[in-house]
């Protein structure tokens, strides 16, 4: 048996294994839809290698080519679809599907109607190259700062595209009739590129999924389960970085420390479930008033902090007062009962770039303490 046979068997088996791995990843890691697309892409790839292995059993050479080409393009389309879902890319898959149908029709035409060996061997590869490069762009533009796995995947897709471009162009140079020298070179390039890229792509996609999972776990560790705000740990991390960044841009930065007035009485009267509902609804009202850049965190039972940048310290105080009136504007409904909710606010303007976030919280807490002792449902400001 020829080495080509063993390469095809290896590609068939590894494609099936990768497909099963991605299917298991879909089932165990949150059932992300893009994992299913990647599993389907590798299964489609397995069908392609199986079709090539079964070539001697096909009565129609044209049908064999159309089936193998369909699986090849289908594998790349499904992979691209998976990447576009993960990256929430605006790319139009419908257009890629339409282009695939046109390419398949062209392959049929140059294989069965107006025979041109170079064209029917190369056209579908050029289509695959286009999608590989689109994948590289989708991956690298997914985030402002790409993960190492994303960079590796983008490079792999690009290098694979370049190598396949050489292979497709070599096939095209045959012209209308088979040229054995070009065909041998085309086969050599293909069987060096495809197995290497096959493994490389799968490995980097696995690393991408692992990186995504690690980021999700980190996000969960920094998120308050009840209110979906950042928790204390997250605020100390994110807040310090944001504080230094905003002060370096000479923005007016303020920290608002607030808590719900008489929250213990709410818990006593309505139970902890009622108290939880108050926290959930109160944070929803506050979140609706925030800018995208504001950092909102729950750092205690009914205690919250917000790091904001506004045009002036006066604007920060006015914003805190807006939050106060928003919370008190109407009662919160719980089991056909209405709970009146107010909150007190301590606001500090931060001018020193060297201040630590925990120190800023302590100063804002002192302002909040004054607001509580002045009768609650108030805003008190201080400057550091």
In short:
The chain has 384 residues and is α+β, with helices and mostly antiparallel strands. The chain folds into two domains: 3-217; 232-383, 2-Layer Sandwich (Alpha-Beta Plaits), CATH 3.30.70. It has helices spanning 3-28, 33-53, 61-86, 93-113, 117-140, 148-172, 180-221, 232-248, 263-287, 313-328, 357-373, and strands at residues 252-260, 295-298, 303-310, 332-334, 337-339, 343-350, 379-383.
Number of helices: 11
Mean pLDDT: 89
Low-confidence stretches at least 5 residues in length (pLDDT < 50)? none
Using the alpha-carbon principal axes, give the shape: elongated
Structural class: alpha+beta
The succession of helices and strands, N to C, reads HHHHHHHHEHEEHEEEHE
Give me the side-by-side strand order of the main sheet. Answer: 2-3-1-6-7
What is the CA-based Rg, rounded? Answer: 30 Å
Beta-strand level of the residues, as a percent range?
Answer: 5-15%
Main beta-sheet annotation: 5 strands, mixed
- Termini separation comes to 80 Å
Helix content range of the residues, please? Answer: 55-70%
């Amino acid at each position: 048996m020829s080495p080509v046979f063993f390469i095809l068997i290896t590609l068939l088996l590894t494609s099936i294994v990768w497909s099963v791995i991605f299917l298991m990843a879909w089932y165990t890691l949150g059932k992300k839809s893009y994992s299913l697309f990647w599993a389907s892409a590798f299964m489609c790839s397995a069908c392609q290698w199986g079709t090539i292995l079964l070539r001697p059993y096909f009565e129609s050479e044209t049908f064999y080519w159309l089936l193998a080409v369909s699986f090849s393009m289908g594998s790349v389309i499904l992979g691209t679809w998976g990447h576009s879902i993960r990256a929430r890319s605006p790319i139009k898959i419908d257009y890629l599907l339409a282009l695939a149908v046109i390419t398949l029709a062209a392959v049929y035409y140059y294989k069965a109607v107006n025979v041109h060996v170079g064209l029917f061997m190369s056209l579908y590869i050029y289509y695959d190259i286009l999608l590989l490069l689109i994948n590289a762009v989708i991956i690298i533009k997914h985030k402002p700062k790409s993960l190492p796995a994303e960079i590796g995947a983008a490079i792999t897709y690009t290098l694979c595209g370049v190598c396949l471009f050489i292979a497709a162009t070599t096939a095209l140079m045959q012209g209308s009739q088979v040229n054995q020298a070009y065909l041998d070179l085309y086969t050599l390039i293909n069987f060096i590129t495809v197995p290497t890229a096959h493994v490389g792509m799968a490995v980097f996609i696995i690393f991408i999924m692992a990186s995504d999972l690690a980021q999700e776990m980190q996000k969960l560790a920094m998120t308050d389960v009840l209110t979906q705000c950042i928790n204390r740990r997250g605020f100390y991390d994110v807040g310090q970085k944001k504080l230094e960044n905003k002060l370096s841009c000479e923005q007016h930065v303020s920290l608002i420390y607030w808590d719900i007035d008489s929250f213990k009485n709410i818990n006593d009267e309505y139970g902890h479930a009622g108290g939880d509902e108050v926290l959930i609804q109160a944070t929803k009202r506050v979140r609706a008033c925030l800018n995208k850049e504001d950092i909102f965190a729950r750092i205690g039972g009914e205690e919250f902090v917000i790091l904001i940048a506004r045009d002036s310290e006066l604007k920060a105080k006015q914003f805190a007062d807006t939050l106060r009136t928003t919370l008190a504007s109407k009662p919160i409904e719980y089991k056909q009962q209405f709970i009146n909710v107010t909150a007190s606010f301590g606001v500090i303007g931060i001018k020193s770039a060297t201040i630590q976030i925990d120190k800023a919280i302590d100063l804002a807490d002192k302002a909040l303490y004054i607001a509580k002792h002045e009768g609650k449902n108030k805003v008190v400001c201080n400057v550091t």
